[in-house]
Amino acid sequence: MGDEAIIETRGLTKVYGKQAAVQDLYLTVQAGEIFGFLGPNGSGKTTTLLMLLGLTEPSGGKARVAGFDPRRDSIKVKRVVGYIPERVGFYDDMTGPENLHFIAQLNGMPDSVSKKRIDEAIESVGLGEEAQKKIAAYSRGMRQRLGIAQILVREPKIAFLDEPTLGLDPEGTMRIVGYIQSLSRDKNMTVIISSHDLKQVQKIADRIGIMLGGRMIATGTMDQLAEEQFGVGDSKISLDDLYMKYFQEIEL
């Protein structure tokens, strides 16, 4: 894991009408780490990701993503960031490799480079035998794996993954978790994973951030957060227990 910050926010805020979706967010993510981004629906996670991606403008504060301001340099940010939404969208009437080739073309990647990357990515995520199938025949797990393949082809500095294991069976979940770990370990990629699967996040995240009501209420390693809340290291504490403890405190 690198020592330099690849994502930084300072007082980042987003207001819709009179409702603050994100309030005064201060966040630092180091290059190469896997950051688990947690919180219930409506807590501000998705709005934060959209601001970091340059897809919505903040109402206040600042953000830097790989050295760029998403508000002013959204195109440059998109070139160095990969994003897999909760429901990965591909063209159903095309095969997996055809979809990846189309994405590579949209990103200005020459065929001489993309062909090798696509072949390697398809094999890496275990879709070699499915290469000639149309996406319409893909299961949810296969689509999620193709999403990871898309990240591998583009090789961005940062990958934002929104609920990457949602709806998958245990085997499919284990596969995706393994791919996420390899992005960080083998590609030195920074991974931001937003998920409700706390057990899997605890397994793979280097650090964790918990949002509630548009505010970041806690950030740190499992050891740091467990020590703060329970006075013991994370070996005896589950992320589920930790998560609920923070929410109980806020409600009180």
Structure description:
The structure is a single chain. The protein has helices at 45-52, 74-80, 96-106, 111-124, 140-154, 170-187, 198-204, 222-230, 239-251, and strands spanning 5-16, 19-30, 34-38, 60-65, 81-84, 158-162, 190-194, 207-212, 215-220. Helix 3 runs parallel beside helix 5 (140-154), helix 4 (111-124) packs across helix 5 (140-154) and helix 5 (140-154) packs parallel to helix 6. The strands form two sheets. Strands 5-6-7-3-8-9 form a six-stranded mixed β-sheet, with helices on both faces. It contains nine helices and nine strands. The protein has 252 residues and is an alpha/beta fold. It is globular. The longest helix has 18 residues, at 170-187. It has a single domain (5-220), classed as P-loop containing nucleotide triphosphate hydrolases (Rossmann fold, 3-Layer(aba) Sandwich), CATH 3.40.50.300. 40% of the residues lie in helices and 24% in strands. Strand 6, helix 6 (170-187) and strand 7 form a beta-alpha-beta unit.
List the helices and strands and how they pair.
Layout: E1 5-16, E2 19-30, E3 34-38, H1 45-52, E4 60-65, H2 74-80, E5 81-84, H3 96-106, H4 111-124, H5 140-154, E6 158-162, H6 170-187, E7 190-194, H7 198-204, E8 207-212, E9 215-220, H8 222-230, H9 239-251
Helix pairs in contact: 3-4, 3-5, 4-5, 5-6, 8-9
